[in-house]
Amino acid sequence: IVHRAELDADGILTRLKIVDPSFFNWPALPVALTDTIVPDFPLTNKSFNLSYAGNDL
Fold it and tell me: What is the pLDDT of residues 11-39, one digit of tens each?
């Protein structure tokens, strides 16, 4: 799990976001699938080991 915290100038917590680590890899999937065929999708998808459930944390 990845925690992102934002603090203001006084060091007070203003924002906290918790996400699954695979969240940051989702934008790479369309790039990896460029110029491929549909049957390549499962192999490419599993290569990134993306979490569907963790994407909505």
Answer: 999 999 988 888 888 899 999 999 988 88
